[in-house]
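Tutorial handout. Part one gives the primary structure; part two gives the three-dimensional structure as tokens.
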Amino acid sequence: MAVVAVVDTTAGASVGLLPLVSLGPAFSGLVGGWRRTALVGVLAVALCCALGIYDGLFEERRGFSALASVIGVTAAGVIAAVMRQRRETEFANVRSIAEVAQRVLLRPVPRSAGRLRTAVSYTSAVAEARIGGDLYEVVASPVGVRVIIGDVQGKGLEAVETAAVVLGAFREAAYDETGLTAVGERVQRAADRALSGEKFVTAIIAEIGGEGGAVLLNYGHPAPMVLRQDGSACFPEPPEYAMPLGLGVPAGEGPVPYRVPFGPGDQMLLYTDGVTEARDHTGTFYPLGQRSHLLKDPDPEAALEALRTDLVQHTEGPLHDDAAMLLLRFRDPGPTFGTLGPFDPS
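Part two.
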């Protein structure tokens, strides 16, 4: 508005810039509230009147046409500002509810559980979302620390609902069941009830107890990465891969539990296929095994953040699939789990 006024007074009325004064309330309606837009509109009308009198435009129709355009744009800007503020308020309320739902579904994992230090990283493929089709949980049960990480087929609200069913079943069974196989069977039944058609969930359920090592149930999920104290890394595969959750596998035909050596100084990284299937611009998959050195930071959360940053840099842009990572770090010998006997690292 100031620029229009300066140009109009210096160039004269023949340039015909007076209607451009309406740009003030127009832009104000895009970024400001309705009160600010109305105030700018009043100033625009006053400026239009002053310039019209100065240029002698009110002696003909041009002055009244310019004034009418400023008033009309001001009214439209006020209406637009009111509607935009209402939408922003509704969006803020929906986002607040969504954040609460996200915290309930994917709660922050405890920084320490039993003799484990834990950290988690979740990167959603959907912009502005914190949850999707990946799931994880850490439960300190009476018989040891039990964890789950899984990947629901598909995306969107349907995948989130399935993740909620699986997590709810695991949280309840992890406390109640004494055997890890029984935990898996309860989660399997819950997934079978919730899913239909060809939908499924790949998952790993693990238990780290007081007898040394970790016991795993693998439901068609990528094998975890285990980092030894000497810096070596391995991906312990199950004896045979079982069917994913939700495909109606009969009772007793689930995965066979297998033990993985896991003791003081070791780390175990559980992840979803959004990590290993992330590609760069050449189509090369993310080399997770070659990036194990990034987990050397004494702080588990800092170590996992370094790995997540490297993953995002590898893709050179947004991820095309949800990527969840759960880092379990065995602390030095200390108190034992639950009612089990002393820890035997052998």
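Part three, for discussion. The first strand starts at residue 112 and ends at 113. The CA atoms of residues 16 and 339 lie 89 Å apart.
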